[in-house]
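Q: Two folds, back to back.
A: First:
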Amino acid sequence: MKLTIIGCSGSFPGPDSAASCYLVEAPYEGRTFRMLLDLGSGALGPLQTYIDLREIDAISLSHLHPDHCFDMSGLYVVRKYHPTGLLPRLPVYAPAGSDWHLSDAYGTTNPNGMTLPFEFRDLTDGLETTIGPFTLRAMLTSHPVAAYAVRLEHEGHSIVYSGDTGPMDELAGFADGADLFLCEASFVDSATNPPHLHLTGSEAGQIAAEAGVGRLLVTHIPAWTDRAEVERDLLTTYDGDYELVTAGQVFELSTTR
């Protein structure tokens, strides 16, 4: 499995990164299977430095806030109007109603036009399904809209992505033993933070410590937030391997233990 950080800026694109988008790749049937976790604002541009957009095999959208899904509008154009012709429908795992939401966001002239290039499949709490070489599991998180953490497993390895979430006890169990835990930390402990929205560095660190993850990858830090403060908060609860990710980083897991 290979994880590439396409965009990791929290809440909106920053000067050094697009909003949330993560490319996960693994061998499958003699080729490389490519899946996106989120396709947030500004991500479609840098994504093209890594792959041809026609090579995307599947997408999982954690939730329907713009910084996690709005570049689906650009991908709609690619798949519908590509010079080689309409591309095959792409499976998109997303919260219920994503087809209509994204169709309205783009402004398609036909009712629910997003379903022409995309085949939407509902993410639900407790879902377990197979997508190419991956087993995907989903868990509802604590956020103002329906939002899901996802766990991808392949040949004994696992990547867990928190999506957006406030503190919740269940997340540590969901991330239990993950090789890579891609976890948001949008808030800092020194601020008065609204509930049921995001995590601080210390909260992300506590979850990672309880889950016993191999490596914590901290993401979704907004451009206006001091990354050094997030890191200081993290170190109050976590002493394991970690990284505050930046766009362009690549993390690889071998296919054998």
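A: Second:
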Amino acid sequence: MNETTYTDTELDELDRIARQIDIDAPAEQVWELVARPGWYINDGTVEADPDLRHEGDVAVVRHPTLGEFRFRTVTLDKPRYAAFRWIGTPYRDQSTASTLVEFWIDEREGGGVTLRVLESGFSGLADDPAVWLKEREGNDKGWLAELEAAKVFVEKSAPAPATQP
């Protein structure tokens, strides 16, 4: 059995996933997607009309094959920052530890935005690092695909730039 060991510093770094992507669209348009809890629960294509309902302060996103995912909104600071607590998945119920998913929308000089995501708190999901590192691994790959899906979705629906006479 090949068991990898990590230093405390390495585990601290692995406790979070940080990714970013440039999107050629206005911040307000990116915000419309990012402010929606669980927009990243999909099969690589963002849904314009997801199966989303609310149970009190919990947003429930139902995916036809993956099941239900639960989120609690932590902060919405339009159009720059949104944070959600990922409190339940088909693999982990909402009474257990959760991760925090944060989004920043930074306007770029010359137009468009950089969308940044930080998911943190993986080490709180289990005492055994092997367990939470396995869950983190799927999300690490997933954020690359989800940010690309966000870019495609938002740019497809972005208004065409005005032409100069």
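Q: And?
A: The radius of gyration is 17 Å.
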